[in-house]
Amino acid sequence: MPNPQQHGTPPQPGRRDFLLASAGAALLALGGLPQRAHAAAPRHALPELPYALDALAPTLSANTLGYHYGKHHKAYLDNLNRLIDGTELTALSLDQLVVATAGKAAQSAVFNNAAQVWNHNFYWKSLRPQGGGEPPAELRRRIEASFDSVAACRKELAAAAVAQFGSGWAWLVADGERLKVVKTGNADTPLSAGLKPLLALDVWEHAYYLDYQNRRADYANAVIDKLIDWDFALRNLG
Ligand code: FE
Questions:
Q1: pTM of the shown model
Q2: Is residue 51 part of a domain?
Q3: Cβ-based neighbours of 26, under 8 Å, separated by 6 or more
Q4: pLDDT tens-digit profile of 65-106?
Q5: Could you list the residue range(s) of the whole structural domain that residue 163 is in?
Q6: Distance 118 CA to ligand 1 centre (A)
Q7: 151 CA distance to ligand 1 centroid (A)?
């Protein structure tokens, strides 16, 4: 089971349980374990980038987005569709697929690619041109209740991005009423741990190396200061 590194109480049942139940029901209706049964059109599609490739420059260059979105993200998507093609896993939504395959050794390739597709879909929406700045008032209140200040939240998010050893992700999540920063390794995602993701920061080297080389902290701080979409985080709070 993916294990986001975090402090505090264990995640409450909720969205994960719902996804697990619906994924389980879908598989049960299909006769249990996935088997390669028929050829099908690719189940999942690459979502359109919500802005132009050069819209996040100079913080993130068009070159970075071209490779990150057009090569890395697309490769995860193509791998996922290839892995599930003709199997009953095509019946599951992307969310259900991530939760249903999390922690299952026999499904690790499907999980890794599905989770990376999910994480990248979410990452692009976590950013926007002329982002950063101050969160909207409602989100600010929630942040201050959990972190004391917006500055402390920003600092903790950047610290998690830097502290994640190797490839992975830093996240702002909701754990019930409380907001938290967590980090996950490789493809792991808070979604499968029952947490509600609000914002994602990709800290795989492919996210920053062309623009920042080994300076991950500079990348994280620049993205948080100039690109993060606090309105997206507020919408995710629901
Ligand atoms: Fe990435």
A1: 0.86
A2: no
A3: 91, 92, 96
A4: 999 999 999 999 999 999 999 999 999 999 999 999 999 999
A5: 137-237
A6: 11
A7: 26
